[in-house]
């Protein structure tokens, strides 16, 4: 059997979860931790404290700056997903969607900068970006989650903000030879009765088994987790303020006016089924074979219905209320003969998401009986997502058959960070006057596939400076495919076409709905059944000989064809990493120094519009042939060198200082790499020529995000009790960001795009200039800058107090982040400088817990100060999010027979989500999610 030098570095490599380490190193660690003469005492406890102290041990012996959560913590909390649990870590935040966390921000950077692995393998996402949707991962099936805030050469590249590593169970490391767990919980939302058709009750069920066989050489683990989680939201949504201003009060000064607002009831449910399997065979000290498989199927269906008031500025405005240059209230009306597009819609939006994620790997590890360990690994990650947005728009009519609109008006007053006061002059609950004007569906399907091969080596050295060397190579192939489609009946504005008239509603397809809660003063409306509306539309289409209402990619809506396409990404990476272990005087120093070299070949295939019949004959899904487009393939290759250094100075047995420096990268959102382009021609600077212009807002020529980062942290671990104090400083210098931009005088031909030499317009042939037109695309801008901050952590188990107070404990962290990165937006009605989206200057997480025999209880608080992010409206819009404080409570009691009862309240104070544009009087979204109650039990054998 190979022998390792018993050093802190050995412990660090194992605890940090290096990309490749040997099973022998695991054995050494376990023996070292149990040895009475261990160099540093490792805290070992049982009960809830285990999760807290185990996390400290992982941090203490890790060779990077990292945070982690143990399986005990995850298994004990009814978190809907792993994202909710990770938001309790220092510097980690999330935006609530439906009241739950999904995507993560780390140190002020959003999900595009966060890399994620499962059992050390890259994960693809069901969304169009790189950001992992962590709600796809049931917390019950994850044994450990870690956030690496500093990289090392052996870690897969991709995380400018950090890398989130999720792990499923290794059955050979289970304490018991055989174990079985069943977990069942029910949930209740106390605001569900405010939303018509909303479900109040949800449920969760999980089963897990781990067993060791053949004299502990074969381990098997399987798990299943089911979630049915309804959610609700009562919401007022204010829309952006127009920069097209208007004098609304006759004082000679123009004011910014909101595009409108929405009054909505929102409800829906998430259903998720997750499966996990793992096998570990270790027939000898020299050979280890592992296999793991994870599968998750996620369905989310929701509705949002109520009123949508659009284009306020185009109506007749009276009694306007003006505040700081913005119209915040007044009366807006429209007559029956008006052609203005100010409208009051009764809306019914139905959104659905169906996604499946599969991830698996096989790992073979072999040791030659000496200093060399070799690991070979094959992994696969696949994610398919289908997103369908559908909706109806109904408008009030005096005469539905002749499309004679009713005269309408709305009187409103925005109330800052509270719902606005709104009243209408008309009644919107009568099926005889409310006509169905528009029905639409806009599906977006995506497929992500990634296969990766790794070969890693570890060679142990007997030197006074380098304890071992890691080196290896990884090759990955990723393919992304996107398909857009559309189906529409009628128009949102203007009169409907003669063959698609406004449809009269009937009593079977609509019902009167009243608002509740904080919105209970709003007018009632008709909720329209979306499926029955489709039946009505199809009956009309069939009666007039038209095709059924079926979403397609078609030339009539050419964006559906242009925004469909494929992206291919081949990555070859190699690394070498020296694991350090040396002394400077009386101070032991451990860590690693290495470099990762990454070669990327990215390309995209899509449709490029050239016009004038100069393209290929391409048929859309409606059978229509166009010759205005060509199939293009555009891309680039690039090579990056990513050095990294991690040093830990062990000042005393209980004090250590860490320093880290690295160059890091994150690749562009994969949907931004598509090559599809629409185009148009206009006159060139030279008379008699035409210049080629294109739009798309994507580009296969994008470079990654790059940053240089530095970290310095001090950790003190208590000697007389269990706990630690941590102070960390970080600095990131980000080189650029990706923005939509219009490039003037773009040379299309030089950048690989095919452009015709001549066109014939109205019988006249024109030469085409290929380098004078504009290109509406995505670019790497030069608006980089620093992000810097400080993180403070404190954990204390008060076991020195007299009984029964010795069961009391506390863990908490505070983060302050600052950035010079700024962007400009006009969503407030004028150009406004905004901070880096996702960055909260102040983030505070605390948990106060108490344990007595089998009784555990805790109260947790998460606070984040205001930040900028996207609010969900008719279209996603950047907005300022107000500060929020989320409080959760949990209590459980465990019997000696393995049965444990649990009770929890999430969002104990019913904290709403609030946004605004520029200033608080420019109201954005006000959402109330309600409290979520959980009651359940766990049984363990």
Automatic annotation (TrEMBL):
Membrane topology (UniProt): Multi-pass membrane protein
Compartmental location? Cell outer membrane
InterPro entries attached here?
Beta-barrel_TonB_sf, Plug_dom, Plug_dom_sf, TonB-dep_rcpt-like, TonB_rcpt_bac
* Keywords from the named record: Cell outer membrane, Membrane, Receptor, Signal, Transmembrane, Transmembrane beta strand, Transport
Q: Primary place of residence?
A: membrane
- Entry's Pfam families? Plug
Q: Where is the signal peptide?
A: 1-24
Q: Which residues form the TonB-dependent receptor plug domain?
A: 67-162
Q: Which PANTHER family match?
A: PLUG DOMAIN-CONTAINING PROTEIN, TONB-DEPENDENT RECEPTOR-LIKE BETA-BARREL DOMAIN-CONTAINING PROTEIN
Family, similarity comment: Belongs to the TonB-dependent receptor family.
Q: What is this protein's name?
A: TonB-dependent receptor
Q: Which organism is it from?
A: Shewanella mangrovisoli
